[in-house]
Automatic annotation (TrEMBL), chains A, B:
Alphabetized SUPFAM superfamilies for the sequence: lambda repressor-like DNA-binding domains, Periplasmic binding protein-like I
Pfam families cross-referenced by the UniProt entry: LacI, Peripla_BP_3
HTH lacI-type domain residues: 14-68
Presence of the UniProt keyword Glycosyltransferase in the record: no
Species name: Streptomyces vulcanius
Superkingdom to which the source organism belongs: Bacteria
Coiled coil start-end: none
Keywords of this entry: DNA-binding, Transcription, Transcription regulation
GO terms assigned for molecular function: DNA binding
PANTHER family found in the cross-reference section: HTH-TYPE TRANSCRIPTIONAL REGULATOR GALS, LACI-RELATED TRANSCRIPTIONAL REPRESSOR
Disordered: region residues: 326-383
PROSITE patterns per UniProt: HTH_LACI_2 (PS50932)
Name of the molecule in the record: LacI family DNA-binding transcriptional regulator
Amino acid sequence: MTRGTARSGSTPAPRSVDVARLAGVSQKTVSRVFNDEQYVSAEVRRRVLEAAEELGYRRNNAARALASGRTRSIGVVTLGTALYGPASLLMGVERVVRDTGYALRVVNTMEGDPAGVAGAVDSLLDQGVDGIVISEPIDEDGTEGAGGDTPLRIDVPVLVLGAPPPVTAPMVLTAGGGADLMAHTATEHLLDLGHRTVHHLAGPQRWYAARDRLEGWRATLTAHGRAVPPAVEGDWSAASGYRAGRELAEDSDVTAVFAANDDMAIGLIRALTEAGRRVPEDVSVVGFDDIPVAAYVSPPLTTVRQPFDAVAQEGLKRLVHAIENPGADALPTSNPPVDLIIRASTAPPPSRTTPAHGRRTASRSLGDPDHPPLPNGGPSSRH
Amino acid sequence: MTRGTARSGSTPAPRSVDVARLAGVSQKTVSRVFNDEQYVSAEVRRRVLEAAEELGYRRNNAARALASGRTRSIGVVTLGTALYGPASLLMGVERVVRDTGYALRVVNTMEGDPAGVAGAVDSLLDQGVDGIVISEPIDEDGTEGAGGDTPLRIDVPVLVLGAPPPVTAPMVLTAGGGADLMAHTATEHLLDLGHRTVHHLAGPQRWYAARDRLEGWRATLTAHGRAVPPAVEGDWSAASGYRAGRELAEDSDVTAVFAANDDMAIGLIRALTEAGRRVPEDVSVVGFDDIPVAAYVSPPLTTVRQPFDAVAQEGLKRLVHAIENPGADALPTSNPPVDLIIRASTAPPPSRTTPAHGRRTASRSLGDPDHPPLPNGGPSSRH
DNA sequence: TTGAAAGCGCTAACAG
DNA sequence: CTGTTAGCGCTTTCAA
C-alpha cells in the first residue's frame, strides 16, 4: 500500500534516525533492514518496517551514493531518434536495468551534435553512474582530427550495443554486434532465390551499424564470386529510400535490393512501384528490423529481425556483472539467433534462367540452429 | 579538451579540496567557481579552473545532492514500447531536459504491470528526482478498487503529457492534451469529403490518449448530427488494425474510418484491400501520428501529426519553472497547432450523392490559425 | 571578496 | 544479532 505515497510539501522527509527512534532501535539497524542484510531478528525487522511505513520513510539515495561510492545507476547513450531500432533497444535496456535494481539515466546524442558520444558519456560521468551503455554508436567526426581524437576514456565498465567505437574503459563489453551476419543472411536469401547479384541501400556510413550491414552484404557477394555493385547511401528514412528507389528503378539490371532498414525499404518499394517496376515480380526487396508494420505494407516485407530484447538482456547481465565484480573476467557471450522473416517482397528474378536451387524456403535461423524459426508469412500469421 | 576524460581505475577521484590546495584557495572558493557564484575574482577563478583541469576534477553529484537537497534530475515515466508516439515524446523530453541542465531518469511502465504508473512514480521518487514527467499515461486498473486507489500523491511538481490521470502534487501541469481536437479535425475532414458518418478504430481504452481520441470523434459526429457507429477497439498494432479491417470490410456501410494511430491504419488498409475494398475509392482512412513511413505506404496515408517536440518543450519549460519557483504560479499554456496531413488515403465516398461542399483541401492547421500548414501530399514533397 | 565550521543522511568498519 | 563511531564530498551558514 505504499503505492504513490509521498511527503506533502511542508514536513521534512523522515530520515532513518526517525525510523530508528520510533522502532526503538539504532539507526544502523534500520540501515540493515533496508539493505536486506542478514543478522536482524524477524521481530526487529518487522518493527522497523512498520515504523518506516508509518513515517513514510524513503531512503535518501544521494546519501547512500555518497557514503557507499556507488550510485546504483546505469547511464545509457542513445540516438535522439524515435527510429525503431534505437528505440527498441532503449526500451529493452530500461526493462533489464530496472530488473537488476539499478536506475537508468539517459542521454541522447543528436546527429550533428559536435560533442557526440563523447559529450554524452561525459555528461553521464558527471552525473555519476556505475556503468555505461552506448547504444548504436555513430562516429560523428568521420573526418578524424577535428577534435583531437583519442579513444574515449571511461572509468566505469562500458557495454556497447551494436558495433564498438574506440573506447577505453576498465571493461568493455559488446553485444548485438551481429549485424554483418544478419546482412549476410539477407543477401544470401536473395542469391538463393536466383538473383545474379544484390544491390544495397545502405544506412548513413557514420553509423557503425550501417557500416556493419554494408560489410556483411559486400562480403557475402564476394564470397559467392558475384559483382559488387556500388551501394546507395540513405539516411534511414523512408524518404531517402524513395529517392534511392527512383535511381535504382532506372537501372534494369537491378533485380534485388537489400535495404539497411525497413523504413528505407518501404520508401524504396514505393518508388519502384511508381516507376512501374513491380515488387517482387521485377525487383525483390529485403528490409532490416521487422518494424511493426512490416507485415502489413504492400507487399508484406521480407526482413531480418533483430532480437533487441535478447541483446539488451544479455548485454546488461554482463555489464552488471562487471560492475559488481570489478576485476573479474567478463561473462561469456552468447550469440542471439538472427531471424529472416520471409514475406512477399522477395521472389526469384524475372525469368531469364531458372535458378537451380533455392526456391523460397521458410523462415530460418542462423547462429542458433536449434532455435525454432519464428512464424513468418503474411499478416494473418503475426500476433 | 575535457572530452571523455576520466580517471583510470586505481587513483581515487580528486575532490574539491584537492583542487583548492593546488590552486592555493579554500575549498569553498572552488565550490563558488563551479557554481558560477559571484564574488570570485577573475584571477582566482582562472587558477581554480586550471587546477581542476589539471586534476581532471569532476564534481560529485551525490554529495551535491545530499548537501543541497536537490538532485537536479527529472524523472520520466514512459510506456515500455517502441511505439512511435511514446518514443518520440521521450526523445523530445530528453532533449529539453538536457538543455535545462537537468539529468534524466527513465522508468517504464509495462502494460500489464500491476504496479503501473504508481509503481514507476514510486521508483522515481525513491531514486530522488526534482520533478516528474508522466508520458502518455495508461490507467492500469480500469476495474478500480483492485488496489485501494486514491489519486497518486507526489511531492514534486508533475507534468503529464497526453491526458491527465488523477494525480495530487504540489503542482500538476499538463501539455499536449489536444488529442480530442486532433480527432475532431480528422473526423471532420472525412465528413467534409461527403461521408455520411465515420467509423472509428480506437486504441486500447485503458489509455487516456485513446479515450481522448474516441471522445473527439464521437463529439464531432454528434455535433454534426450523424450516426455514431460502434467503435472497434484495437491495441495500436498493425495486426489489430488488420483484424478490425476484416470485420469492417464486411459492412458495406463503412466508407470512412478514422484510426487512432497509423500502425492500425496500415493494418486496416491491408485488410480492406485484401477484401477487395479499395482505399480510398471505396473506403477512406485517416491515421494518427504521421509515422515516418506514412507517406510511403500504399496509398500514402492521410493522418494527423502530433507536434511532439513542441509539446515536450513547452511542457518542460513549465515544469522546470515550477521546480525552481516553488509556490509561484504556473507558466501559461500555449496550444500547439495540430496538422492534418492530407495524402491519398482519403477521398469522397463512392458516388451516391455528390457532397455539396468540402472538396479535398490542402493541409490545414487548427488551434493556431496563423501557423502555416506544413507541406503535405505525396512522398516527393516530404523532406 | 574569501574562508572556517557545521552538517546533509547514509554506509562502513569496528566493537560488543 | 545489535550498536558506535567515522567519514563520503559537497553546500550552507556565518565570519572575516
